[in-house]
Amino acid sequence: EINDEQEDFTRPWLEKSPFADKIRFYIGDALELVPCLGVTFDMAFIDEPLSNSELEFLPCWSQELKLLVNKQHPLAKKSSLSLDDLIGHYLISYDLQGPLGEDLAALIDGKPLQVGYRYKDEITLASIVLANPDVMALACQSWLLKAYTDEIRLLSIDEAPKDFRQLYIVYRLSALQNSAVYEFLELAKELFKNNK
Predict the structure, then answer these.
(1) pTM for the model
(2) Rounded CA gap, 191 and 68, in Å?
(3) DSSP string for residues in the chain
(4) Could you tell me if residue 128 is left (phi over 0), alpha (psi between -120 and 50 degrees) or otherwise beta?
(5) What is the rounded CA–CA span in Å between residue 146 and residue 111?
(6) Closest Cα to residue 64, out of 192, 166, 168?
(7) What is the pLDDT along the chain (196 residues), one digit of tens a residue?
(8) Number of alpha carbons in the 13 Å side-chain half-sphere of residue 180
(9) I need a surface site. Which of 21, 77, 92, 127 has the fewest CB within 10 A?
């Protein structure tokens, strides 16, 4: 986990797992941590392809950008809206220096919106919206938001592409793969061949 703010939320779930004694929780940048671990990974899931000719990036699924709205907010009655509907409201979203920054800035470009771009993850964004009904958040629809379905609505944004955040399976081209990894990757290639 790169976001140290997630530790208090994540650690109790890991400790309750029947595999808690096998899970090691690291906080930091994966590009810096992984080389220090002394292990080899067959594959990983990431949200931003890296410049590395030794790696293959297989687009596997995408996430839609949604507006997170507290159910007490007047806009919570809608199912979708335009960015123009958000003029005059305070929004929060991802840090523009992160992997979604460029796409987020392009989507908002030219709109007179008040957006606090400082957060790294959906859980933090949803928690702030839950705590303050006047604040709304632009966040990708991930499984992490299911924990908030009783208190927060996720509204579609007319201008946002359905595949706002692309996620990838990454693996080393030159690595020998055991049959389970090979078959998983072949299945993934077949399943996600239309996502390129």
Answers:
(1) 0.74
(2) 30
(3) ---GGGHHHHHHHHHHSTTGGG-----S-HHHHHHHH----S-EEESS--S-TTEEEEEEEEE-EEEEEETTSGGGG-SEE-GGGGTTSEEEEE-TTSTTHHHHHHHHTT---EEEEEE--HHHHHHHHHH-TT-EEEEE--GGGGGGTTTEEEEEETTS-TTSEEEEEEEETTS---HHHHHHHHHHHHHTGGG-
(4) alpha
(5) 30
(6) 166
(7) 565 666 666 677 677 777 778 777 777 777 677 778 887 777 787 777 777 778 888 888 889 999 999 999 999 999 999 999 999 999 999 999 888 999 999 999 999 999 999 998 898 899 999 999 999 999 999 888 998 999 999 999 999 999 999 888 888 887 778 888 888 888 888 888 776 5
(8) 2
(9) 21
Look-up: residue for tokens 């297989």?
58
Residue 196 is which amino acid? K
Q: Which residue has the tokens 């292990």?
A: 39
